[in-house]
Structures are given as structure tokens and as C-alpha cells.
Amino acid sequence: MTRVLLVDDQAVVRAGFRVLLEDAGDLEVVAEASSGAQAVAAARAVRPDVVVMDVRMPGGDGLTATRRIVGEHRGEDGSRPPAVLVVTTFDLDEYVFGALEAGASGFLLKDCEPEELVAAVRRLAAGDGLVDSAVTRRVISEFARRAPAPAPSAPEVDLLTPRERDVVVLLARGLTNAEIAAELVVEVSTVKSHLGRAMTKLGTADRLQTVVWAFRSGLAVPG
């Protein structure tokens, strides 16, 4: 079972999400929180696999909570922190980009279809970060434009093989595994293998945070 923590200041939203997730059969809501501070405490207590996080809440916003949850639970033994799925209206771009910086693993629009929420939680639990398909390239493109100047030479870049670098650069352009495979004329399974090894070397938790690393390191550049 995938253990889920629901965070939203509206009880009716949490109740609706709980029903949708638990009806899936393989997802279990182990705790709920109505503020960022409560979310941090609940994450410490129950150690969920995935946190479904609202961003605008009284008593502590979701961005601060995301940063603390990801930071506090990154195990020294290499264990992954809980994956944070930010649920947003996307009218507030600053929250989206702030969540990227805070370590969120994925985004979903609040008006998504029920099956999309279930699929998103499953993907994050499996280590596949995502952005809602309707906004993937927009988010990555805008994040690239806003990204701070990269370090002159990030040492992690040298850990990657040439092919692993190619895969990470194409990922940072917003390409799917299938599109990367077509670009490099390889099998999708080969792309997954290269990406998995790259993420292990870089210490990134998922695809989305690998994109963030690519722009911060200078391996990928805007445009």
C-alpha cells in the first residue's frame, strides 16, 4: 500500500480526495493536515510515501512545509523523502516555481479528473516526478528562464556518461521518455536505464528534480 498524507485547509477537499484515493485499492490515507505546520508534524509522525499538498493555507503555507518535509526526511542512508504532489490552480505561477525550488516532485491542477489524481500519486510513489500534462513544457520553460546563473562547473556533471548527459538535457527540454528515445534512436527501456543511473549519481529523487538540477548546474540552458 502507498501511504498518503493529505494537506488542505478545506475539510471537504480532504474528504473528497480521501474517497478517491482509498477507492483505488492500493492507496491508503494515513493522516490529514489543515496547515503547513500540521503537515510537517504529520510527516514526521507517519512517514508517508506521498504528500498531497495545497499551497495556500492559514497557519503555514505549503511551500515552507514542502521544503521542511523534503529536507528533514532526506535520509543519510540514501532513502528518499516523501514525494510531494502540489495541487494548484496554476493561476499562481509564483507558487508553482517556489514549489519547484522547495523540492516538490509534481504538480496537478485542482480541476483534474479523479483518475488523474490517483495516477499522479501512483507515479510519485514509484519515483516518477511529473507536472500536469497540460503545463509540463510551460513550467519547465519558465523555470529555465528564471533559473539562477549556474555554477561554473558543477562537479556532478563529470559523473555522468555522455549518453546520460544527453538524456538529462532532453528531459530538461520537457521531452517524455518516448520522445527522448526517438531523438536518440534508442529503446525507451534504454532511456529509463540511463536516466535511472544519472539520478542515482546526482542524488535526485525524481525526474522533476533532475530537471531542476540540470538548469542549476548549467548542463541545460534556457532555449
TrEMBL record:
Q: Where is the HTH luxR-type domain?
A: 153-218
Listed InterPro entries: CheY-like_superfamily, NreC/VraR/RcsB-like_REC, Sig_transdc_resp-reg_C-effctor, Sig_transdc_resp-reg_receiver, Tscrpt_reg_LuxR_C, WalR-like
- Response regulatory domain location, by residue? 3-125
Can you tell me which residues the record assigns to a coiled coil? none
One short Pfam name that applies is GerE
The yes or no answer to whether the keyword Magnesium is present is no
In-chain residues carrying the UniProt-annotated modification 4-aspartylphosphate: D54
One BP term from GO = regulation of DNA-templated transcription
The keyword DNA-binding is assigned to this record: yes
Keyword line: DNA-binding, Phosphoprotein, Transcription, Transcription regulation
Q: Can you name this protein?
A: LuxR family two component transcriptional regulator
What species is this protein from?
Answer: Pseudokineococcus lusitanus
